[in-house]
Design brief:
Farnesyl Diphosphate Synthase, mainly alpha, globular, about 350 residues, single chain
Length: about 350
């Protein structure tokens, strides 16, 4: 049984964000993304009714589908002329969706993109199992392409993402987390899928190793920059644009880079505040406002943006191996978009 998903979100993003910095990417990938969306609709189907219902709840809830768009654009830039990149892009989106389902269970999150999470509606067990179903479908599509290189890239990413999840558990609610420890978490948990999404394009196109390495580096550094900006937005973003409440990370006790920096630079009294709210979870009225004030006083938000800009610059530099053209410019603009969300 196939389920038709509402795919109007892709068009809506084009219409509502004319200056978003990713319009070039969306325009280049538009036709191929129609095929990707159709394949997602087909492969999310199951005779087990709960599977398409739960998966559709998250897949159709919005978002620009940045990762599969990157897969499509990287394949195009490398001159790929077949159709297997469509399956790889759909695989990337399924991997991302599965990760979100699992994340919400681990983090005990109630909202995702402004909607109730699947785990709140269907329960933790169903969310985990449907996430596993999507991973299975993703690997099935990878195998269908017949590319062992691409299968290797994405399967390795899946392993690294899982390692990142466990690493995050190890540092959860621990104010002893260092900047390097946190960067290792997001490098594995978030950036690894960006890197894989962009590397499969040249791998599928059988391009030289140098091009694979360049796009892998681009995706990795873009992913780190993207997550660091997300960390900043949780304390300073626009609710209507975020799709979630300001301070969700704070209320969940998530240790992010702004918090790490503020803690390291703070007085003993300020460190005691962070230990109370993050490690003990004893949040009181006005604590979020106090946390934001501490982050601003110690330059933690601005310095996190600075670090994101550093990784963004490395992402742009990685593209220098490719000739100037619409695809390279579009990928460069994506980096600028990622950073501009917080500046």
């Amino acid at each position: 049984m196939a389920v038709i998903l509402p795919m109007e979100t892709q068009e809506r993003d084009n219409e509502t964000a004319p200056n978003s910095g990713i319009e070039g990417l969306l325009a280049l990938a538009e036709n191929d993304m129609k095929a990707v969306n159709a394949l997602i609709s087909e492969r999310v189907g199951s005779d087990v009714t709960m599977i398409p219902e739960l998966a559709t709840h998250l897949i159709s809830s919005g978002g620009k589908r940045l990762r599969p768009n990157l897969t499509v654009a990287s394949a195009q830039m490398c001159g790929y002329e077949g159709s297997d990149h469509v399956k790889l892009a759909a695989s990337v989106e399924f991997m991302h969706t599965a990760t979100l389902l699992h994340d919400d269970v681990v983090d005990e999150s109630d909202l995702r993109r402004g909607k109730k999470t699947a785990r709140l509606l269907w329960g933790n067990q169903a969310s985990v199992l449907v996430g596993d179903f999507l991973l299975g479908q993703a690997f099935r599509m990878m195998v269908e392409t017949g590319s062992l290189d691409c299968l290797g890239i994405l399967s390795h990413a899946s392993t690294v993402i899982s390692e990142g999840e466990v690493m995050q558990l190890n540092v959860a609610k621990k104010m002893s987390t260092s900047e390097d420890m946190y960067l290792n978490v997001i490098r594995a948990k978030t950036a690894a899928l960006f890197a894989a999404a962009t590397e499969v394009g040249p791998a599928l196109s059988k391009r030289p190793e140098a091009e694979r390495e360049a796009l892998r580096s681009y995706g990795m550094n873009l992913g780190i920059a993207f997550q660091l900006i997300d960390d900043v937005l949780d304390y300073s973003g626009d609710v209507s644009k975020l799709g979630k409440s300001i301070g969700d990370d704070f209320r969940e006790g998530k240790i992010t880079l702004p918090v790490v920096l503020s803690y390291l630079r703070g007085s003993e009294n300020e460190r005691g505040f962070w230990r109370r709210v993050m490690e003990d979870g004893a949040i009181e009225d006005g604590d979020l406002e106090k946390a934001v004030a501490l982050l601003e006083n110690h330059g933690a938000l601005s310095d996190t943006i600075g670090r994101a800009q550093h990784y963004g610059s490395m992402a742009k530099d990685a593209l220098a191996i490719f000739p100037d053209g619409v695809h390279r410019r579009a990928l460069t603009d994506v980096v600028s978009f990622a950073i501009s969300r917080a500046v």
